[in-house]
């Protein structure tokens, strides 16, 4: 469903389509000890949350202790296990983006893509991203802020070349420093001009 900011429509009143229920996923070309589970944020207990925070902190070498304060309850986590240890992770939340002169799009916004350093370069990160992509077809578009653009380009993601901005009510906040905003076209994605402006609705504490 497309809505227009300019028409004064409240984004909060647009009911998102229901995503698939969390399932245990089989993966191809992976050792049998490797599997991926989908879980909503609200389904993660304190132990799983702490492990994901530790994983993200180790992979990004940054403090992620705030992660579960910022995530909505319906965040969709892709959690990869090897021998029952969490080794890789990504999370999808719903955000709203608007390409210049286009309707607002419901975006699957991807955060905290991370693999434990000791388990990197085994294909786990790619496996997580592939499963993630297979589970976001109800969205209009996928979007993320990349630290490693090459990793995502190999998976079909494209860097947004045009100006980036945050939208807070009627106000547009330019974000020229954000060079690594990437999008993934999905089945529902309309034609896009990557050289025009892309605006995202701001969140408490962050724009992108
Ligand atoms: C980016 C990141 C998530 C990738 O996770 P990963 O599990 O290592 O990913 P993969 O193994 O699927 O692929 C990573 C690389 O390993 C290579 N690789 C995959 N399997 C391999 C194998 N069996 N042997 C050797 N190399 C392999 C891939 O070709 C890829 O190489 P490239 O990125 O140089 O092209 C991980 O490096 C990470 O956590 N980085 C820190 C946080 C970060 O930057 N996150 C992403 C940006 S938000």
Give a quick rundown of the structure.
By secondary structure, the chain is an alpha+beta fold.
| Structure annotation, total helices | 4
Give the overall silhouette: globular
In CATH, the topology is named: Aminopeptidase
Under CATH at level 1, the class stands as Alpha Beta
User: Strand fraction band?
Assistant: 25-35%
Low-confidence stretches: 1-21
Number of strands: 11
Helix fraction, binned, reads 10-25%
Molecular structure report:
This protein is an alpha+beta fold. It has a single domain, classed as Aminopeptidase (3-Layer(aba) Sandwich). The chain contains four helices and eleven strands; from the N terminus they run E-E-H-H-E-E-E-H-E-H-E-E-E-E-E. Strands 1, 2, 3, 4, 5, 6, 7, 8, 9, 10 and 11 form an eleven-stranded mixed beta sheet that branches. The radius of gyration is 17 Å and the shape is globular. Residues 1-21 have low confidence and may be disordered. The structure holds coenzyme A (COA). Coenzyme A (COA) binds next to helix 1, strand 5, helix 3 and helix 4.
Name a few traits of the molecule.
binds coenzyme A, 208 residues, single chain, alpha+beta, 11-stranded mixed β-sheet, globular, disordered N terminus, Aminopeptidase, 4 helices
Strand and helix layout:
Blueprint: E1 24-25, E2 34-40, H1 46-60, H2 67-70, E3 76-82, E4 85-99, E5 105-115, H3 124-134, E6 141-145, H4 149-153, E7 158-159, E8 164-168, E9 171-174, E10 181-185, E11 198-201
Parallel strand pairs: 5-6, 8-11
Antiparallel strand pairs: 1-2, 2-3, 3-4, 4-5, 4-11, 6-10, 7-10, 8-9
The structure holds coenzyme A.
């Amino acid at each position: 469903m497309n809505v227009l900011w300019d028409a004064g429509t409240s984004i909060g009143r647009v009911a998102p389509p229901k995503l698939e229920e969390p399932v245990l996923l089989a993966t191809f070309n992976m050792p049998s000890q490797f599997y991926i589970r989908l879980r909503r944020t609200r389904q993660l207990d304190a132990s799983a949350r702490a492990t994901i925070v530790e994983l993200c902190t180790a992979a990004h070498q940054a403090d992620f202790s705030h992660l579960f304060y910022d995530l909505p309850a319906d965040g969709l986590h892709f959690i990869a296990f090897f021998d029952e240890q969490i080794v890789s992770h990504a999370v999808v939340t719903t955000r709203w983006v608007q390409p210049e002169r286009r309707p607002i799009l419901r975006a699957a916004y991807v955060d905290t893509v991370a693999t434990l350093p000791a388990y990197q370069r085994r294909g786990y990160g790619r496996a997580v991203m592939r499963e993630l992509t297979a589970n976001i077809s109800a969205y209009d578009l996928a979007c993320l802020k990349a630290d490693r653009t090459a990793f995502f380009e190999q998976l079909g993601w494209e860097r947004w070349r045009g100006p980036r901005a945050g939208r807070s009510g009627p106000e547009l906040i330019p974000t020229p420093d954000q060079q690594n905003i990437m999008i993934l076209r999905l089945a529902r994605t309309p034609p896009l001009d990557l050289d025009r402006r892309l605006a995202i609705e701001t969140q408490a504490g962050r724009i992108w």
